Amino acid sequence: MPQIAPRGSLCDIGKNYAKSLDSLALNSHTVSTLMFRNHPSGENAMRSRTSLRRLAVVGTALATAGLLAACSGSGDSGNGASSSEPGPGITATTVKVGFIVPKPKTASGGTGFIGGEVGDAKSQVNALVKYVNGKGGLAGRKIDPVVRVVDSSTDSVQQENAVCTAFTQDDKVFAVVLTGVREPSARSCYAQANTLMIDAGAVPLSKSAYEELKPYLWAPGFSTIDDYAKALANSLKPQGFLDGKVKVGALIENEGGYQEAFDANVKPVLEAAGITDVTVAPFDATSGGTQGSSAGAAVNSFKAAGIDRLLFLGRPDMVGFFTSVAAPQLYTPRLAVGTFSDPNFIRLNPLYYPPAAITDAVGVGLIPGLDGINSGFPAKGPETTCINIYKAAGQNFKLRTDARKGLFYCDATLFLQTVANKIGKDGTLNAANFSSTAQGLGDSWQAAASLGTKFGDGIYAPASTGRNLEYDNNGNFKYVGGTFSLTGS
Questions:
Q1: Which of 57, 100, 158, 471 has a beta carbon 3.0–4.6 Å from 361's, enabling a disulfide?
Q2: Number of H helices and number of E strands within the chain?
Q3: How would you list the strands of the sheet with 362-365, edge to edge?
Q4: What residues in the chain have per-residue pLDDT under 50?
Q5: Could you give the C-alpha distances from 277 to 113, 272, 291, 305, 333, in angstroms and in order?
Q6: Which of 414, 432, 429 is nearest to 214 (CA)?
Q7: Could you tell me if 429 and 423 are in contact, meaning their C-beta atoms sit under 8 angstroms apart?
Q8: DSSP letters for 271-300
Q9: Mean pLDDT score of the chain
Q10: What is the architecture of the domain spanning 86-222+379-463?
Q11: pTM of the model
Q12: Which residues pair with 362 in a beta bridge?
């Protein structure tokens, strides 16, 4: 009669199976050299994705959901996160926190693009750690920082998983402040190690992605794809984008939840405005070749359909791929863009985003630094707090757009401090308790990078406030009108 394996054995089987699938994914991955490979807003946003790697990632997720379910016991919350045991990297006096910073020479790309100033990320991290530790640390424990410098120009699934392994197995950190981690397998790696991820890289994800990784992944200065899509759609009619007998098209990334967000949040708004026939073209991000070819195919499709209004839902550089193909053909439909299209990068690179192709563009903004908004800098409150922390360490920013990445680091670190302090020194610091405490913050904690934030049940990316955004046809973007809820609620 076969013996039933104890829970510990099932955990080991699940972990070993997940590791073997991750290894399969790593060995199958190749990295392409692309025109937009080092787009600053995405931190090497483009890379090839082979079918084998996708299969391995799915397999890893199944292994985690199935076999690793045996690892959870009484008092657990979320994906096996214990509410009674301390998280990794915690002692009576310290909390080990990892920070990923980009290698300076590659932080702005290196492909001929103008990325703007961003300061020294490592110095910014050191300034933040000094500030938090000077204010009592995390629930009375000093941050013991582990800083890893990553070369974004060589970023790959192998590299992202290797960094995770170093942080979780070698350093055994409680949390990692991430920047630009796009690989699902890498994010799963942190979750499997019960390690919190505080995203300072502004990589948009769907609500379902956060649900799958709860309670580990947080993006305190950003929103979900779903909320952004709804806000973008709601901004179009008030800005005259849908006036008259217009023909609307949409270029949508074919992975990452963008199509689902369009169907659920954009189509109903367009239909309510009388737009029932929308020409949709997919943007295939599998490789450099597919990105270029899908952009070209989209241009042909939209031209043939007579599309004169076009919105984008996907990675930031989609707009650049489209305008680089369409503008030389003198095809310039009116565009709907927003924060996820990185308006600041658009305004800095007119060679790749010709002004004629951006004329009268409108959309929605939620992060002033990415939207190219420098007026009123620094704003009172969280933004001023962060700027003063950096100033005390000799890091000075002339413009908000120069401080945009520094503000994400600041939000990640101060969010970690706020939640830990609410748990308190006598409380148990772990992912489960962190989650319940963070979601109870409501709007009592505000991010410096975004216009407004509000936590609640099931909210891991709490940016909640938007403003209408428009291109002024003089090379800059500006906000118009007042603030509104991203979800319309």
A1: 471
A2: 17, 14
A3: 278-283, 248-253, 309-313, 334-338, 362-365, 465-471, 477-485
A4: 1-38, 40-77, 106-110
A5: 36, 12, 25, 11, 17
A6: 432
A7: yes
A8: HHTT---EEEEEE--SSHHHHHHHHHHHHH
A9: 84
A10: 3-Layer(aba) Sandwich (3.40)
A11: 0.84
A12: 336, 470
pLDDT digits (tens, 9 = 90+) for 341-375: 999 999 999 988 999 999 999 999 999 999 999 99
∠ CA 53-56-62, rounded to 5°: 145
CB 446 within 8 A of CB 452: yes
Is CATH 2.40.50.140 the classification given to domain 226-365+467-485? no
Do residues 258 and 232 make contact, with C-beta atoms less than 8 angstroms apart? no
Q: What is the per-residue pLDDT for 113?
A: 73
Instruction: Tell me if 464 sits within 8 A of 221, measured CB to CB.
Output: no
- Cα separation of 31 and 389, whole Å? 38
Contacts for 439 with CB less than 8 Å, ≥ 6 apart: 455, 456, 457, 458, 459
Q: Is 359 helix (H, G, I), strand (E, B) or coil?
A: coil
Between CA 343 and CA 478 the distance in angstroms is 10
**What distance in Å separates the CA atoms of residue 444 and residue 438, rounded to the nearest whole number?**
10
Domain residue limits, the chain: 7-77, 86-222+379-463, 226-365+467-485
Contact 264, 234 (CB under 8 A): no
